[in-house]
Known about the structure:
Blueprint: H1 10-32, H2 34-44, H3 48-81, H4 96-103
Helix pairs in contact: 1-3, 1-4, 2-3, 3-4
Amino acid sequence: xxxxxxxxxxxxxxxxxxxxxxxxxxxxxxxxxxxxxxxxxxxxxxxxxxxxxxxxxxxxxxxxxxxxxxxxxxxxxxxxxxxxxxxxxxxxxxxxxxxxxxxxxxx
Length: 107
């Protein structure tokens, strides 16, 4: 975001919101894999499958945490610089980290 003082950041916000939406979809896919991972672990008799699933889940949570941080930083920059931003009406959106944790059953 070069030269933010004179920039309309709505395009960046749209890209970020789309990424957050895809992140939530990916969390849904990963959550759906839990039964498959458990079944594979039982059939194979190894904890490697469930361990790999847990690593994927934790990586997704880490990505969601970073995305939430970027979103918060963008909003703070927009507010501080008085930039043109998206105006969204309605209920406040939950941070991506909370959405992903909820979908994965982690909170």
